[in-house]
Input
Amino acid sequence: MRSRIPGFRIPLQAKAVALATGTADVPRRLNITGEDLDFVTHRPPIHNQALMARIGHLLVVGAGLSAADAILHALGLRADGINVRVTHVFRGKAEDTKIGKMFGDSHGASMYRDEEWLAQLMRQKASDPRYTAKAESDLQEILEDGSCVIKRKEGEETISEVSVVALLLGAGPSLHFLPPSLRRAQRLQPYVPLTRTVPGEMGKGWKEGL
Output
């Protein structure tokens, strides 16, 4: 690796290189049929005016912070006279998701009351007629008529009349600028915080592949 500082070309050797490329570069995909339909997005729908204009039945896949923001924003639209129905699909048990781990314990006066309420909805310890949780489920296919096929332990299930699908699965860094040989050699599971930042705490230490 050589320095790009004007006037300097200094060879450097290192056992490892950390590329600080930022986050949310390349949204993760499911690579399923229908993923590229015009009512499917890999970012929260609020960023797309066309999707917000047609939102009525929102299907969200994922259980991280972006998914929580999208769901809470959709349910909050009732104050604007817009009633949105949300179907929430996530792979694990509610308590094992990021939302469940970060907000599963209600603190009453917490500044994260909305997120804590969502965590309770996911665990079916609270209810709202506009929200349906599909835990331990995988989205298999998205059809042009708005039908979405999910796989559950009980078998396949079809969710009908979905107007917007939000696949909020996280994102990875864009490493398109690296030569193919280095892209193949990159770490599959980079170092991540041992303890992710949660309300009232800072990340403590580092651990590989958490």
